[in-house]
# Entry
Amino acid sequence: MSCKFCFAQFKGISELNEAEALSLVQLVSDYGFEKINFVGGEPTLVPWLKNALKRAHDMGLTTSIITNGWNLDSNWLKGHAEYLDWIGLSIDSLCENTNNELGRKTSRCKLPNIETYLNSIKHVHEYDLKLKINTVVTQLNKNESFHDLITKATPDKWKIFQVLIIENQNKEAKELSITKNEFNNFLSKHEDLSTITEVYPEYNEDMMNSYLIIDPSGRFVDNSQRSYSYSESIINVGLSKALSQINISTEKYTIRKNPNRISKLFSKNKTDSGGPQNH
# Structure
């Protein structure tokens, strides 16, 4: 798909081949990491994804993918589910017109809707995998309700992101930006869903230097300046040296992983002057 707000476009960057990718998975495991998340673009389009998942699974890593769900049918899951712990579904709107404006459509302009997503979710539940839904809040969907989807999908997690603009990735999407107050309003309208699933809100500042991201060519990504810079190749210099070349905050990572944050946020706001505040 061609989502306008995507901050992982990596245009003009060469990609690892299968052998290099499997080697990198091995290095990540050997270093002591406990989880690996395969994202894109769209990971289900990678012909050797199954081998990478198997390598990670065999090394004891918790495995997950983030997908738009278009290829997530019983046939695909039959070949991959045994090596997967989590499926993350990117769902930013249930309205076809909004998805069209966001660029969440196939090259043949096929558009997802709630039926598309619920069908994918049905297959995930059939294989008894953990389900996470990721939603990026923008100017186009900030007033949309996700109650019907979350109630029917019953995901294990719902991650809600304030759209993040990275200067050398998606700066042309700046018109989609929202304020903290607009993001808080979206969260406030969905606060009751925390009784159904664990809700993880992420403001722009939460996403800065709190994720360990590896780009398609096998380098760590530093986003601390809202523009990507890169380490040397992990395969060439080793994971420790490459890791030392980027900024990463373990404190911010820990805060970001707290599922009770949304309830704390709104319990505080309710004791203030009513409604979510800019903080």
Summary: Confidence is low (pLDDT under 50) at residues 268-279. The domain at 18-271 is CATH 3.20.20.70 (TIM Barrel). The chain has one domain: 18-271. Residues 234 and 266 are 41 Å apart (CA to CA).
